[in-house]
Amino acid sequence: MQAIKEKFESLFEDAADRKQLDDLRVKFLGKKGTVTTLMQHMKDIPNEEKKEFGQSVNALRQSIQQKLEQGIEEVEARLLKKKLENETIDVTLPGRQRPIGGKHPLQHIIDGIEDIFVGLGYEVYEGYEVESDYYNFEALNLPKSHPARDMQDSFYISNETLLRTHTSPVQARVLNAAKGKGPIKIICPGKVYRRDSDDATHSHQFTQIEGLVVDKNISLADLKGTLELFLKEIFGQDREIRLRPSYFPFTEPSVEVDVSCFKCGGKGCNVCKQSGWIEILGAGMVHPNVLEMAGFDSSEYSGFAFGMGPDRMAMLYYGVEDIRHLYTNDLRFLEQFKYIEERGVKHESI
Ligand code: 2NL
């Protein structure tokens, strides 16, 4: 028994893992293990020594069992320690930098304009980019013979459908859906298309924002007051505006709206081409024909409408010299606008 004990202890000292400890258990305590077979010698032991022999074997079994259990705990603690060491995380390591985008400069302008009109109680409508000939032209007092309807100038999809050439059809649809009852106060931002050769100042796809107000007793004074408030909000409170007579088929009278130059204040500079004024909007009183075609009684209702090009405004605002920069999505261009403030049209940011 002493020899068995010593043999076990020497093997136990060398056991390095769970598997070797299990093997030791089988070898000493298993069914055919050394300690188990020792018991089979009981029959050869004289009766008066049987009790002592049995107790000794049991004591040996217990001591081996205890050692093995303790060994397993030690081995597991050692394995856990090793695992934890391998899995150590260096929390001081800097994180991975993920590239983040920013709002497109044109979207800054559009959002800024939308904010101002939403603040005045206008609703925003986007409509469809593929339009019917009726809503794009006919409903806007542009009859079939009108030069603006030249096939050469628009992207036609079929005889009756085309890519909208302005956002006015959105307004014509809202007008039509109102079934002759005001008030209507909407702005319509969106992409528009003209069949044009692209160059620094022309793009076959560009953006437009139009506004429309229809109610009883709407006058040119309401139009002027609204546009003055809007343009001062965008270009600065010390700006002035002026209205010049103009012509659009869907408004009568029609006006061109200028704002005093935000850069030189009206003295004349490179931005305003020495004139002191920047042409920024077209507008007018909704033509009675347009109201009547949409089902409004033009003796009861009147309205004003205006349209502007956010592309040109973005170019003026940020000093962009080629409209194509707004549409080619070159990251070297776009990244320069990543950090401009949310209200991208505040004059302080020019
Ligand atoms: C410009 C001028 C304008 C309108 C758009 C409009 C829409 C309806 C009725 C009457 Cl439904 N008018 N839109 C009116 C005047 C001018 O746009 O220079 N745009 C870039």
Automatic annotation (TrEMBL):
Binds 2 magnesium ions per tetramer. GO terms for biological process: phenylalanyl-tRNA aminoacylation. Belongs to the class-II aminoacyl-tRNA synthetase family. Phe-tRNA synthetase alpha subunit type 1 subfamily. Residues 59-336 form the Aminoacyl-transfer RNA synthetases class-II family profile domain. Tetramer of two alpha and two beta subunits. It is found in: Cytoplasm. It catalyses: tRNA(Phe) + L-phenylalanine + ATP = L-phenylalanyl-tRNA(Phe) + AMP + diphosphate + H(+). The gene is pheS. GO terms for molecular function: ATP binding; catalytic activity, acting on a protein; magnesium ion binding; phenylalanine-tRNA ligase activity; transferase activity; tRNA binding. It comes from Nosocomiicoccus massiliensis. Its EC number is 6.1.1.20. Pfam families: Phe_tRNA-synt_N (PF02912), tRNA-synt_2d (PF01409). GO terms for cellular component: cytoplasm. It is an enzyme of class 6 (ligase). Mg(2+) binds at E252. This is Phenylalanine--tRNA ligase alpha subunit. InterPro entries: aa-tRNA-synth_II, aa-tRNA-synth_II/BPL/LPL, Phe-tRNA-synth_IIc_asu, Phe-tRNA_ligase_II_N, Phe_tRNA_ligase_alpha1_bac, Phenylalanyl-tRNA_Synthase, tRNA-bd_arm. Keywords: Aminoacyl-tRNA synthetase, ATP-binding, Cytoplasm, Ligase, Magnesium, Metal-binding, Nucleotide-binding, Protein biosynthesis. Its cofactor is Mg(2+).
